[in-house]
Automatic annotation (TrEMBL):
Lineage: Bacteria, Pseudomonadati, Pseudomonadota, Betaproteobacteria, Burkholderiales
UniProt KW keywords: Membrane, Transmembrane, Transmembrane helix
Protein name: Alkaline phytoceramidase
Residue intervals passing through the bilayer: 57-74, 86-111, 117-137, 144-164, 170-189
């Protein structure tokens, strides 16, 4: 994929313009109600006392990714402790969002209605904000990444509240779609030296596959003769989008520890030579 070079100032201006256009579209665009059959998923099977069993249990993928990320960031034996503060904060936001999504989506599919769906979407808001921030950190600059992540989180939460209290789904759709378009654009930007080596193409591929499975919920259920639905598979595939993040964070921690160790060794060697 061809890459281009963009300065942090240019990226910040592009983000401001993009946010302004999305805000204008949300303000002037027509109200989009949520479809009446939104909560009617293809797989309605229960396992004992567990309703919509596979749609609930498939959220374990998000929980696994969240736990893996938390262990990476908190384990004292992990090289990720050496990560820069901004990168650690963005990663923590992303993995916290995955944990909240695991809980929120499980509760929602246990009892699907608008109130539980709002909780699910609030968890997704954190994950989306963290992912956008990580993408910007890997391509542009730490400061831009943190600002954009905070703005994305505020906008996403606001869009959920607008939908919950006013019934208009358009702001949520614009925030979600706009965020992924930004990540798609950043995938064409050359990685920043010394930043997180995040494979955005892999993240986009996993997310795109998850959306296709979501849209083909009933079709997948029918094609598999009722074995599994598209929505259940969507949870598993969407959780896999965390794998490139985990891999990149491990590599970044190792690289930073190696550089630090080399600098210490050089300093000690220089000091020893001076003493001699």
């Amino acid at each position: 994929m061809p890459s281009v070079s963009i300065s942090p100032a240019s990226a910040l201006r592009a983000l401001y313009w993009g946010a302004a256009l999305l805000l204008l579209a949300a303000w002037l665009g027509p109200a989009v109600p949520q479809p009446q059959d939104f909560h009617a998923f293809a797989d309605q099977r229960a396992w004992g006392a567990l309703p919509h069993a596979l749609d609930v249990l498939s959220n374990l993928g998000f929980a696994w990714a969240a736990v893996a990320g938390a262990r990476l960031l908190l384990d004292r034996r992990s090289q990720a402790l050496a990560l820069a503060p901004a990168l650690r904060w963005l990663a923590a936001l992303f993995f916290t969002g995955l944990a909240c999504s695991a809980i929120g989506s499980s509760v929602y599919h246990w009892a699907p209605h608008d109130a539980t769906l709002a909780g699910d979407r609030l968890g997704m808001s954190m994950a989306f904000a963290g992912m956008l921030g990580l993408a910007l950190q890997s391509r542009i600059a730490d400061r831009v990444a943190v600002r954009a992540a905070v703005a994305m989180l505020v906008a996403a939460v606001a869009s959920v509240l607008v939908w919950l209290h006013g019934g208009n789904l358009l702001p949520w759709a614009l925030v979600q779609g706009g965020g992924m378009l930004a990540v798609l654009g950043l995938a064409c930007v050359a990685p920043r030296h010394g930043a997180l080596a995040l494979r955005l193409g892999a993240v986009i591929a996993w997310y795109g596959a998850a959306k296709l499975l979501e849209w083909g919920d009933a079709a997948v259920f029918e094609a598999t003769a009722g074995l599994v639905s598209g929505h259940s598979l969507k949870h598993v595939v969407a959780a896999a989008a965390a794998l490139p993040v985990i891999t990149a964070l491990r590599a970044a921690g190792t690289a930073r520890m190696t550089i630090t160790g080399t600098m210490c060794a050089d300093a000690c060697g220089h000091g020893g030579a001076t003493n001699r």
